[in-house]
Design a protein that fits this description.
Elements lengths: L12 H12 L1 H9 L1 H7 L4 H9 L2 H6 L4 H15 L8
Helix pairs in contact: 1-2, 1-6, 2-3
Length: about 90
């Protein structure tokens, strides 16, 4: 039986580490919102990954090895930071 989930490849570690920072770290989110290019450079993201992050293309981020949970939660936390009145805190 084939599973529906495959572990991210090692090459996707910088992307997943960056997504985790966006999800979990207020300072990292604020840094990304203020200067996306600098934040992505600091996390060692390549050009293709940067484009996917800037567009927050979930399908492309997952295809590049982003963990689906981290992709989803990073986008939610960024949306909450950018427009705090649009989300309920839970």
């Amino acid at each position: 039986m084939e599973g529906h989930y495959s572990f991210p490849p090692a090459v996707a570690y910088p992307l997943n580490r960056f997504l985790f920072a966006l999800k979990s770290n207020t300072a990292a989110r604020e840094r990304y919102i203020a200067d996306p290019e600098a934040a992505m450079t600091e996390h060692g993201l390549d050009g293709e990954t940067r484009a996917a992050v800037q567009a927050f293309d979930r399908n492309r981020l997952v295809a590049l090895g982003g963990h689906p949970y981290l992709v989803f939660m990073a986008q939610v936390r960024l949306s909450m930071a950018r427009e705090p009145g649009t989300f309920e805190y839970f």
